[in-house]
Amino acid sequence: MNADEVLKIIEQALLSRPLSPVEQLILRQSWLRQSYSEIAQHSTYSNNQLKEVASQLWSELSKVLGQKVTKKNFPLVLSHYQPEQVAHPTMAVPWELLPQTQAHVPASVPQTTLEFPGAPVPPDSHLYIHRPPIEQLACNHISQPGCVIRIKAPRKMGKSSLLNRIMTEARTLDYRTVSLDFQEAEEAVFASLNKFLRWLCANLSRCLHLSPRLDDYWDEELGSKVSCRIYIEGYLLERIDSPLVLALNEVNRVFEHPQIAQDFLPMLRFWHEQARVAENWQKLRVLVVHTTEIYIPLKLNQSPFNVGLSIKLPPFNQEQIQELARRYGLDWSKNNHSQQLMAMVGGHPYLVNMALYHLCQGGISLEELLQTAPTQAGIYTDHLRNHLAMLRDEPELALALQQVVSQEGSITLETMTQRELPSAIAAYKLESMGLVELEGNQVRSSCQLYRIYFRQQLQEEQEMYLRMVQLEQQKQEIQRLYNIDELTQLPNQHYFTQYLEAEWQQHRGVQSLSVILCNVDYFRFYNDAHGDLAGDVVLKQIARVIRNWVNQKNAFVARYRGDEFGVILPQTGTKAATEIAENLRQGIKTLEIAYAHPRFSGFPSKVLTFSLGVAITVPHPDISPRMLMTAAREALSESKLLERDRITIKFVDNDLEFRI
Description:
Layout: H1 3-14, H2 21-31, H3 36-41, H4 47-65, H5 74-79, H6 134-141, E1 148-152, H7 159-172, E2 176-181, H8 193-207, H9 214-217, H10 224-236, E3 244-249, H11 252-255, H12 258-274, H13 279-282, E4 284-290, E5 309-312, H14 318-327, H15 337-345, H16 349-361, H17 366-372, H18 381-393, H19 395-405, E6 411-412, H20 423-432, E7 436-439, E8 442-445, H21 448-483, H22 493-506, E9 513-520, H23 523-530, H24 532-550, E10 556-561, E11 564-570, H25 574-590, E12 610-617, H26 625-641, E13 647-652, E14 658-659
Parallel strand pairs: 1-4, 1-5, 2-3, 3-4, 12-13
Antiparallel strand pairs: 6-8, 7-8, 9-11, 9-12, 10-11, 13-14
Helix pairs in contact: 1-2, 2-4, 8-10, 14-15, 18-19, 19-20, 19-21, 23-24, 24-25
């Protein structure tokens, strides 16, 4: 028994109701023995959401089966399930037993279990709704030599279903058909144009039951594009005696690799043009199916997307929705249900089919369905969450959509002001996702479902984003205050130590690293004479200009403590470090801050000066940053003992000795 069979038993025989998307997810992954954390990791639901829904589900199954059902024993219980275990088994639902009367069910509708919407509709399905004149136009066009048909629509709009009907028509004409889906191609296939084209030709050969002979036709000097053309024309088309319909599905996968798309897409156009002059190329008819718009810079005269028949699938209209409801066995001819559903989902084929499927399963009315549709508890929650996840990856698109859904009517493209993404591109991308409709210069939400859901979700997302930004700003400010000296606004001793550790690890055993400690001579006397406020002014004055005295880009300057400043000089040897120390010694004198107070006299200098200690080393495992700082401190002490206003240099070598 597989997961699909288990879900069918639970829906039809045990609970007699359709399972919600989240219930299906829980049951399917629990059958595969995944934990709630694993399920949450690969879905858009949180761990708590999954557990809450699962708890109710296990309780409901326990009552029906008459034994306790848990996530742990669920696979075992269901693997031994027998229909007689419950008193109300519900087998496959024949069409005449669906809601409404048999009189409104088409005579051609077979008795069958409804398939869950999402997969392409088979060509012979009674649930396929024609959208004239698209089907007839496409089927007629396929008989034209060398034709190209381009089918474009958002996901789940019916592209694959239409493609199936065209291919069926081609087979009735005794044409050869090959369908390649680029979703099947591994990422390695897109590593280069040559690898991609060889993959394409090899698949074509296999599908036509011909042995791949790539090496016989591939010539590196001619290039992969020419080799591909020669292979298809001279080998594949030469060996078939009837037209070939080549369907290329999910071509948008190629768009993700612009370097390949730039060459491959114009090549399709060339094939189309060759049909005018080459008989073999007249056998080829190409169907190109893609989901998203092309946002690669192709020249119009090279792009294949402005030749051949272009088909853009429209949503269902009200009459088509009413007809589809009839085929589901619902009589909506005497009410406005089709109008209500269309107002909510806008005629989107997948969304319409989802609604009709759940209504036919029973357990929910149209009113309840529409009321919960734009919520997390509605039947569209997975569909909406997938769109939301894509929008999270492209914040500019999310911002553009928020502007659209925040208003009931339309907005102009100019209103969608975007910094990173031009308004027109944002609008076209949202249209390709099916979220908006474009009418000239106007943009509006595709349906109320998207407007209501994304208005709330994007607002919450924006508020959450703003809160995160504020928290990050607060965090940065706290970090800044933690690392910055409040008086001078230079980095403090704590940050100085961190920075030195980082530089030490980065330059270990490679280049010299120097440290300078400089102390304002006799600053305590200046402070006592002029007061703390005056002393603070002097320290701020020195801090403002000390960086200019250092004059080295990668230097790190900090207020080490009190009237002492520190400088870290990565990749700096003895000569450069000595020159910078001398700049500092001379620089403070240029400020001409005098000891102008009658209480104090006899200073060696009339203005404030620096005593400096310089320590230099090459970082080594046997030496630590602490040792380097100890050497700098000792050098500074010697300068202060030797009449001050001077520089003392110490070297720290690998033998752990200090040398002057």
